[in-house]
Structures are given as C-alpha cells and as structure tokens.
Amino acid sequence: MSKGVIIGASIGNCVHVAGAAHFLSLAEDEGYEAIFLGPAVNVDMVLDSIEKHKPAMVTLGYRLTPENGVTIVRELIEKSARLTHKPIWIFGGTAPVAEKIRELGFFNVIFDGTDDIDDSITFLRTGQMPDKSGAELFAADLTGRLAQKHPYPLLRHHFGLPSYEETRKGVAEIAESRVLDVISLGIDQNTQQYFFKPEGRKPEMDGAGGVPVYDAKGFLKLKEASQCGNFPLMRCYSGTADVIPLAEVLNETIANAWCAVPLCWYNELDGRGDRPLQTSMEEAQELIAFHGKLGIPVELNEPHHWGLRDAHDTISVAASYISAYNAKKFGVRDYISQYMFNVPNSLSFSMDLAKVLAQIELSESLADKDFRVYRQTRAGLPFLSGDEAVAKGQLAASTALQMNVRPHIIHVVGYSEALHAATPEVIIESCKIVRGVVRSTLSGNTEALSDPRVKERRDELLSEAKYLLDFIRDEYSGMSDDPIGDAKVLSDCIKRGILDAPHIVKTGEFRGTLQTRVKEGKCLAWDAKAGRTMDERTRLETLIGKTKRNVV
Fold first, then answer.
1. Which residues contact 359 (CB under 8 A, 6 or more apart)?
2. Coil, strand or helix at 433
3. How far apart are CA 201 and CA 192, in angstroms?
4. Is the dihedral of CA 521, 320, 342, 265 positive or negative?
5. Which site from 13, 193, 320, 478 is most exposed, i.e. has the minimal number of CB atoms within 10 Å?
6. Burial of 37: CB neighbours in 10 Å, binned 0-12, 13-18, 19+
C-alpha cells in the first residue's frame, strides 16, 4: 500500500538532479510513489503537478548561485499561495544555497549536503528529522534500532579515557554529533576485575586501558550523558571477575545494549584476570545464559582473539562456529557475530574476505527463527598505521572491504589507535570517514565476492575448519556428549594445542607452540622443521599422532 506521492525536481536553471533522484529512489524503497519532473523545471510546472497529483511531499533541488536560488524560491513562495493542496516542502542544495533558503522560512525540511542516507531514511519513515527530535524517535534497544536504520548499518565505537570526567563529557559530545549509534564503554582493568572488591584495586593501574568506574552511580552518570543528540545506545565489555553481578549492574544502569564476552580469554591464558581457564569458560557460558534469559543480545569475541594472536585462518574460522554454537546452546536469541578484518595485518584483502565469508557461513549455518545472527565488522587494530593520514586511508579501505558482506553493525576503529586511545574528536571524524564509505557502497560495491580466488579460499577454509571441528568431536566423543559446547573439552583443546596460537605464552599448561606464516595473503600453519605449510590433517596428526577422516 502506497504511503502517498512524492514529487521531485531541480528548479529554475539548475540541471543537477542526482540528489532529487536519489531521494526519490529511497522514497520508493519506503513505499512512496515517486514522480520525477526532471532538471531545470520552472515554478509553474511544479505547482501544476502538485494540483494534479496531490503529493504528500515535494522535494526541490538547487545547487547553483545562492542569490539566484533565493529569487526562484521567492517566486515559488508567492505563487504557491494559490495551491488548494498543501504538501510537505523539502529542499536540497549545497550548504551555501541551503543557508540562504533556510532564511526564507518556507521549506519544512532542508538537506544541505552534510546529511547522510540514514537521515533521509529516518525522515521518510517518521516524517521527522533526527536533528530536531527527542528520544522518542530512537529505539532504545539493539534490534529496534537495527530495524529503524536498515539497510544502513549501525556504527559502534569504543570509548573510555583515563579521566572519568573527560569520559563523561566526551560521551555527551559524541552523542550530540549524531554520527554514532552505539557507544561502547571501555572500562579500565581495575573496574573489570575489582568492581566489587575495591580493596584489590591498584592505584597505579587506574585508567589503564579505559575509564575507571567505582560504583553504579558512575555508570548511571555516563548513561545520562548520552541522552542527547541521537540518543546512542550504550554497552560495556564483561568483567574478568564477578561476571554475573557486574552484568546485573550494567543492565540496570546503562541498559547494556548487548553483552560481549570472550569464551577462552580474560583469565590465566592472557593475564587479563587470574581465573583458571576452564573456570572462566564455565562462567562465560553462565554469563551467556544469563543474558539469554533476559533477551539481551550477546557477542562472542573468539575469532578475532585467536586471529590477533596470529593463529592460522582455520582456527579463526572454526572459532566462529564454536562461538555461535555456544551462544545458541546457552539460550541466546539475538547473536552478534563479530568479524575483525585485517588480522593478521599482512593478509591480502581477497584472502581476508575469503576468511570472513567462511566464518559467516559457519556462524549462520546455526541460524533459525529462534536464533538470529547479526554481522558486525571492524578493521583490525594492528592494521592501522602510526601515521594518522595513512591510517585514515586504511580505515576507509577496510570499511569498503567490509561492506562486501553487508554488515548490520560496523565497529568503527578510530584512526588514532596506533598512537593513543580515541578522543571524541577522533571518534567523530572516524565515524564520518566510515559514513562516507557506507554512503558510496550501500547501493552496490565492487564484485569481490565473485572473484574465483576468494571462492576457492573460502571453500578451502570451510573444509579445513570442518575437519578441525570434526576432529574435536571425535577426539572427545568418549568424554562428552557435546564437545563443542563443553568448557572442559575446549579448555583441554587449548592445553593440548589443538586450539593454539603463536602468541600464547608457553607454560606448564599451555603450549603456544603453533607456528604460522602468511603466504600468498593467507595465514597458514607452518612446519618449521620441514620449512613448509601444513593443512589441518597434517598439523593434527603431527600434534596428536592420530589419523582422522577428512570432512568436505
């Protein structure tokens, strides 16, 4: 059922019609009937068309000299007095033209070129511009906001400065900029580990890696600071101790948009906590179940944690399935599957895309009506240069690559990350860079998915990852009815090196003996003695000494 008619044209002597045509195309996608009058349309033709079609809205564009535009619009104002039908008037032009036209006070809505596609979509869906509306215009939960913004991805950015007050002010500044949909609070290690045991805090570590928060009121004030601008959602990483109590605090204070929890980390394995590996895994599964019961979305970080430690691509792909499997097993209904591109940072773009496509296929193989999977992409931290000008280009290039997989959420990485934590200014500029790329690729990107090399590598990784997963199931079939969802099994896989990474510190319990090399843009397992790469069958036979059937 049509929402009504929208008439569009460029007026006077202006022949620039791209803006009007694009807006009408968006309007058709939203259920309007679009009538395009063309370029250089005179005022009388516009008015005659209004009387004939009785449109809900009329969008007119002018991109030439501001003074000439004012003359034409004054003619429109004078002659429109005769209309018996009164539409909503929309104007689009360059910033100098829009500034002059705004002074005339005739148009209901004015686009000046600084607006983005999602602003137009919001207006077409609600009849309101985001910059003139309150909280009621913005969904307060993740799935609601995803629906509002579709097909435009939500943008998320990590933010937390060593100073609490600077962080609070920064949250408000970011919200007022309206460029970010989700503020992802970065709390310091003291808060993650000692929120409920303040006596354990180490003063010299306050603000290390994020913002120090000492009590529930601290979280509440940060949430309150975000209630302006486009009212961004807020979320925070899980703790490394007392994980359920902290999750309760986050839910009650910042309405945690979703829980991000690592399955294998934040423990003795990476030093971000002192919990034994199996204990932390079991607590992670409890945390997943806790959020599942409340209907709060969950994100597991396994694939990129392994990738950041230079595990070969097969382990990162298998980890995507392990993550999604555990989320589904423990009751999550809305699962956020994060795909960090550019890890390791020497991967080629084509092989990186192939890896992510394999991860997506395995993660989404578990999707059904009760388990919805959302794609979240991001650039890899090690990818960005310490030269900020170069890093801006890399951020844009990575985003263009990510858009090939049509993400629901883009986790924006500030271009300054190789030098320092992102400030509000860096976050706002980084989001604008990403929004520029999204604007250029949303309606169609280069056909990288059809590259035969990408398809070949994706299929190769699917076969290799399935072999690894099948190996784990077979190896532990006598120990567990569900090895992929069993914390005892998974922790033992890490201790034995079935799941391993070069950057894992070698101890009495953990091997860290896996070696990898990037060859032809792929991260592969490496046999140092033989001086060659290994497929997964060879790696596991060498490690365990058993032959397992291949899975294709």
1. 303, 316, 317, 320, 337, 339
2. helix
3. 10
4. negative
5. 478
6. buried
Q: Which residue type does 395 have?
A: L
Phi–psi pair at 507, nearest 5 degrees: -140, -175
Q: How far is CA 67 from CA 9, 37, 107, 491, in A?
A: 19, 23, 17, 71
Residue of 176, 173, 185, 168 lying closest to 224 (CA atoms):
168
List the one residue out of 242, 265, 186 whose CA is nearest residue 219. 186
Alpha-carbon 180 to chain mean position:
11
Residue keyed to tokens 């007119």: 60
Distant-in-sequence, close-in-space partners of 504: CB < 8 Å, separation ≥ 6: 269, 309, 494, 510, 511, 512
* Token pair for 199: 């006596």
Closest CA to 424 of 229, 217, 140: 229
Q: Where are the beta strands (DSSP E) in 126-227?
A: 154-159, 182-185
Q: What is the 3-state secondary structure (H, E, C) of 220-233?
A: HHHHHHCCCCCCCE
Strand pairing report for 522-527 and 532-534:
antiparallel
What the block records as the tokens of 73 is: 């619009």
User: Which are the contacts of 530, defined by CB distance < 8 A and separation ≥ 6?
Assistant: none
- Backbone torsions φ then ψ of 306, nearest 5 degrees: -70, -40
CA distances from 26 to 30, 50, 437 (A): 6, 20, 18
Report the alpha-carbon distance of residue 96 to residue 80 in Å, rounded: 24
Dihedral pair phi/psi, residue 18, rounded to 5°: -60, -45
Relative orientation angle of helices 452-475 and 313-329, to the nearest 10 degrees: 60
Q: Directed axis angle between helix 142-149 and helix 117-126, to 10°?
A: 100
Per-residue pLDDT of the chain (552 residues; tens, 9 = 90+): 678 999 999 998 887 877 888 888 888 988 999 999 999 999 999 999 999 999 999 999 999 999 999 999 999 999 999 999 999 999 999 999 999 999 999 999 999 888 778 888 888 888 777 665 667 789 999 999 999 999 999 999 999 999 999 999 999 999 999 999 999 999 999 999 999 999 999 888 888 889 999 999 999 999 999 999 999 999 998 888 899 999 999 999 999 999 999 999 988 988 877 889 999 999 999 999 999 999 999 999 899 999 999 999 999 999 999 999 999 999 999 999 999 999 999 999 999 999 999 999 999 999 999 999 999 999 998 899 999 999 999 999 999 999 999 999 999 999 999 898 899 999 999 999 999 999 889 877 777 888 999 999 999 999 999 999 999 999 999 999 999 999 999 999 999 999 999 999 888 788 889 999 999 999 999 999 999 999 999 999 999 875 444 333
Burial (0-12, 13-18, 19+ Cβ within 10 Å), 1: exposed
